[in-house]
Q: What sequence folds into this?
């Protein structure tokens, strides 16, 4: 039994992009230790199977527009459970510190004297394109990449010029604003003929890949569903050499 004064511990756990086999060994071990698991929208049942049968599983997924409201509820849950000495697993998609507000939860927990341990995860930003046959770097083709979110760039065109010269761009949370993103990048100097790919629900059984050009995205010709990783750059052409389309059961469209 724990002393009354001892606070619980918070584990910030990366769940990877969806395929449960992409969890780390450490994540699986720690999930078994947690009394409470707070999990996000993109976390599947197969990942939650590693929790103890008696663990309290709490869904804290966020929908657009309710981000701040839900975030303060998540902070409250962390505090409440830590105060009674529970071990809390905060299970986040991909890597907890890539656009997941994981570092904010980490800082808040520390402010309240709660011990925090990070269990890094396989980020969708790198693994999802890779498994689709799109390496983010390749000798002679791409020496740099950037991972960006479109959320905070609405209306701020000057931001896009920063991305005009980076070889490979990976855009997360970019499905809804894809036309605006593509138009802004072309206005900032990227070529409309540049190849792009969207990988929807990467690593999951119903993964779907759409290949196209930046210009076609800008012209609203591409249908995609969230969640998807949006990759822009010459590396997209490498798919042809790195995949056997006839052996794949995934859907692949060239639009
Ligand atoms: N921390 C996460 C990213 C959170 S932002 C990570 O490191 O992967 C959420 C965005 O990630 C989604 O909008 C989508 O762009 C991307 N994403 C996460 N999982 C995905 C998946 N399985 N397939 C495609 N995109 C995914």
A:
């Amino acid at each position: 039994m724990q002393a009354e004064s001892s606070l619980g511990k918070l584990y910030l756990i990366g769940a990877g992009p969806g395929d449960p086999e992409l969890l780390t060994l450490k994540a699986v071990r720690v999930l078994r230790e947690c009394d409470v698991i707070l999990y996000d929208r993109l976390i599947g049942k197969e990942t939650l199977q590693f929790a103890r049968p008696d663990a309290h599983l709490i869904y804290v997924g966020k929908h657009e527009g309710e981000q701040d409201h839900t975030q303060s509820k998540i902070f409250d849950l962390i505090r409440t459970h830590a105060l009674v000495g529970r071990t809390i697993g905060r299970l986040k998609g991909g890597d907890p510190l890539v656009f997941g507000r994981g570092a904010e939860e980490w800082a808040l927990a520390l402010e309240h004297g709660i011990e925090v341990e990070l269990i890094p995860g396989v980020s969708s930003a790198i693994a999802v394109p890779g498994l689709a046959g799109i390496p983010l770097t390749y000798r002679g083709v791409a020496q740099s990449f950037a991972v960006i979110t479109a959320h905070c760039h609405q209306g701020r065109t000057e931001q896009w010029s920063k991305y005009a010269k980076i070889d490979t761009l990976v855009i997360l949370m970019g499905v809804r604003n894809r036309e605006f993103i593509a138009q802004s990048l072309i206005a900032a100097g990227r070529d409309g003929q540049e190849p792009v790919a969207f990988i929807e629900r990467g690593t999951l059984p119903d993964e779907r890949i759409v290949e196209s050009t930046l210009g076609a995205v800008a012209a609203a010709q591409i249908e995609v569903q969230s969640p998807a990783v949006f990759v822009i750059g010459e590396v997209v052409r490498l798919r042809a050499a790195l995949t056997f389309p006839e052996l794949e059961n995934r859907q692949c469209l060239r639009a």
Observations:
- The chain has a mean pLDDT of 91.
- The longest helix spans residues 67-83.
